[in-house]
Every structure is written in structure tokens, then in C-alpha cells.
TrEMBL record, chain A:
CDD domains cross-referenced by the UniProt entry: PAS
Protein name in UniProt: Sigma-B regulation protein RsbU (Phosphoserine phosphatase)
Region (Disordered), start-end ranges: 1-21
Gene3D superfamilies reported for this sequence: PAS domain (3.30.450.20), PPM-type phosphatase domain (3.60.40.10)
Domain PAS: 29-81
Source organism: Streptomyces zagrosensis
SUPFAM superfamilies: PP2C-like, PYP-like sensor domain (PAS domain)
Keyword match Coiled coil: no
Automatic annotation (TrEMBL), chain B:
Domain STAS: 5-114
Lineage: Bacteria, Bacillati, Actinomycetota, Actinomycetes, Kitasatosporales
Record-linked PANTHER family: ANTI-SIGMA FACTOR ANTAGONIST TM_1081-RELATED (PTHR33495:SF2), ANTI-SIGMA FACTOR ANTAGONIST TM_1081-RELATED-RELATED (PTHR33495)
The name this protein goes by in its record: Anti-sigma factor antagonist
Name of one Pfam family that matches: STAS_2
Family: Belongs to the anti-sigma-factor antagonist family.
Amino acid sequence: MSKTNDEEHGGAREDEGPVDDRAQFSALLEDSAEDLYEHAPCGYLSTQLDGRIAKVNTTLLDWLGYQPEDLVGRKYFSELLTVGGRLYHETHFAPMLRMHGEISGIALELKATDGSRLPVLVTSTVKKGGGGQPLLIRTTIFDARDRRAYETELLRARQAADRERDRLQALTTTLQKTLLPPTLANVPGLDVCAHYHVASVDEVGGDFYDLFPLAAGTWGMFLGDVCGKGVAAAAVTSLARYTLRAAAVYHPDPVAVLGNLNTVLNHEYNGADPRFCTVVFGLLTPDRVHGGFQITLASGGHPPALLMRADGTADILPTPGGQLIGVLPDAHISTTTVHLAPGDTLLLHTDGLTEAHTNAAIGGGERYGDDAFLDFGRALAPTTATGTISAVRGLLDTFGTGVDDDTAVLAIHVPRPHSDEQQ
Amino acid sequence: MTKRLSLHTRTTPAGPVIELVGELDHHTAPEIRAALPALSLNPGQQLVLDLGTLTFCDSTGITVLIAARNHALAAEASIVLAAVPDRVSRIFRIVGLEQVFLIYLTAQDAEAAWRPTAG
């Protein structure tokens, strides 16, 4: 039964009414065709194929403030539209209607006689004769004021969300910067370069590095990676960075420095949400006798450094047995000592580089890996600090979105004497 | 992002065995970490983490293993790992975890090696 569609006037429910009521109810429906047309809850409009208005219902006339004689035979449908709407009608609406015989749900604005504008949704179909020839255009027009208000509200909310997101990104960027040294210390006789690759502008990463002077002509450096991301990781990064700087001043032995960091982090973070970092700390001492630098590296569970020699060979610098820092009461820290001769380059990195997806663009799951990284070093040697970092940046670029964790790299290089004479 | 990790738990007389299937990284780790406190462990029991079907584990994934260890130790239980894949054991070597966890070839080996401790 389709009667329920039009029961507005009724109150005449079939089960409660006697026969009279039912007759009355049918009567209501029967004389409704003309009335429904004139007072339908939407505007009806019939136009000739050129758009001249042939018939218009009362609803639409009332919305716009016209009398039938103002429009019928006098105006074109497009004349009811705003200037922008008219343009759209000429260039899209009418051609689409001609081509497909119908067009639906187009948002336009109608001009009322009082100058106000009425946002509407317009649907038109072409009525065809028996031979398929087009005869006239029928158009329904729905009041879209509520919908427009809703859309405006939606737009406003979206703009507010965009502003918040920009604010968050600015905050994240600032926070990230505070976790890295603005510039690296200038070490006489050493070429130094670093790079921090941000994987996500929405989240602070947990990588960190620094290079700074210690007493008596020695230098300290570190590079590390706090597990996880976001503000919680940034808090650990900050704590780790300042603890390392302070501990190194107090007692620069690399094992003692990392031991202190382990104690501090252990106090702060453990239990159900453990936070740890892996870090390599180095003590740099100029070698007055042989030239170059003597470097003592201590590793707390960090991926080994890559040593690229002046003679074009390259290898990893193992620091086996070192344990991650911050979750074990007595983390074992392992050390290694290396002489960095003129022409040699040492590269420290975080695993964002080696864990990067190499074919992210085509959905591949392969990760770059340590072996490829060693090959990269072998192809690069001999090199310089700046040469190394620019090569790493090029490598990261080729991974694109495949780098899903932040990556920090720090390269130190002892320039050859008279390097500019050797081409 | 679709979850690339699932977790299967079964109970044995020696204690629970948790099998981790998929990638354990910063996308999947929080959920597993959150599930740990609900894991019931009695003193003297042994928690086995079966990593045989773990395809990836990054630094955040390692926090899950450490959180599991903390949970086990707090319950006066022990924790062992089983079937650690080569890739993962290489990461363990780098971060020095192979000295922290007792590792067995299979979960069955771990179960067979368990001895109830008196008291």
C-alpha cells in the first residue's frame, strides 16, 4: 500500500477509522494530482528545449516571489540563476542534458525577486516523443539551504582541523630541532657532516646525535636511536642527549658515559612500557705522532659503524656484545678502538636507513639491509664526510616513502694533507 | 594500515606459549604490549614466546619482548624465546639481547626443558 506516503493530512489510520474516514482519505489522494504538482515540497519547472519556461509550480513561484505571468513564456530557466550559475548552465548543465537526456543533483543558486539567493539541487530530464525526438525539459528543484549550511559548517570544521594540523607540525618541527645540535662543533683537522631525515612531519622521531668539545683537546660524539616515536620518545631522546653531554664532561670514558645513561634511563622507564635506546659514543683524540685521530667507540646495542679507508676499502667496525641502554640493570657495553688516518671516513647511522623499504613505490616488502649498506660503503670509499652524507641523502631519496623511521647519519673524515693537490 | 601481526596463545603445564605471526614493529607493538598485563602467569611457570613465524622485528618490537620479560619476572616466572628467525637473531646480536633471553630451537624444546621449581 502506497497510501502511507501521503498521509500528512490524515490522522486517518485505517485500523481506527470507519468506512467514512477511509473514503475521505481516498478522496484526499484522488484530487491530489494537480495539488501535488502545485504544492509539492519541491519546485517543478517545464521548459522548451531552448530553456524558455513553459510551466512552473506554485512552490517554486513562492520561493522566488514571482507570479506565473512573470515567468511563463517570458523568461528562460538560466535567467533564474546567478551569474556564476548561468555560466555553469551554459558550459556544463545544458550540454550534459542534451547529450545524456538527463542530469541530476546539480548544486546551483536561484535569484529571488527580493535579491536573495536560494541554494538548490537541480535535476532535469528531457521528455521525448514517440519517435524519440526531444519535446521539452522537466526540472525538479530542491531547497538546499540546510544542506548548504551543513556544508559550510563542514568546511569550517575542516579548515579548523587543517589549522590545528599545521600548528602540530610546526610544534613537531620545533621540538625536533631542539633535539639536534644547531651546528656541529668545528674540530680542527676533522671534516664533519651530519644529516637527519624526518620520516613523518606529524611525529617527532627518536634519533639523536652530537659532537662537542671535552677537556684537553679531546672531543666527544654520539649518535643514537630511542625506540618508538612521538612525544614520549622525544622525552627520552632529550633526557638521553643531555645525560650524555653531562656524563661525558664528568667522566669521558665511553664505557662510563653509557653506563651513566643506562642508570638514568633505568630509573625513569621500565615495566609495562619500557623505553630504551641504542647508542654509540665516541671519544676523539688527535694523534700527534701518526696524524689523524684516535677514536674509542663504545656501543650500547647500536648498529656498528662503517669505516671507509683512504685506500678504497670499507668494512664495518664491530662492537659485539654491547647491550641496549635503559632496560637492563647492568647493560654490557663493548668498546673498540680505531685509528682514523688521513683520507679515512667513519660513518655512524641509525637503523632507519638499513630498515628502509627499497621498493615502497611498487609495494615491495624488501628492506635495504646491512649487506647492501656495506656494499654502498665499498662503492663510496675513499670519500669525505660531506661526500658520504650527500651520497646517503641520495640513497634515502631513492627509497622515497620507503623510509618509515627517522634516520640520523654522522660522518667524520680526516682530510689528507694537501688534498687539493691530489685530483 | 592493516595489522600485519597476529597473536596465538595456548596454555601448557609449563605455562603459556605465545606465538607471534607477522611483523612486530611500531604499528603492531602497542597492541601486543597492552595485551601482556592480562596474561596470567604463576610463580615458577615459564612464558614461551614462539617467534618462528615472525617476519620482522624492529626496535619498537623489541620493547614488546622486554615488556614480556618484565611481566614474567614480576610474576616470579621465567621467559624463554623459541625458534628465533635469523633476521631477528641478527638484530638480537646487535642490541645484545641474545644474552638476556634463553633461546630454544622450538617451542616443544622449551616446554620439554622446563622443570617446576619447588616452592
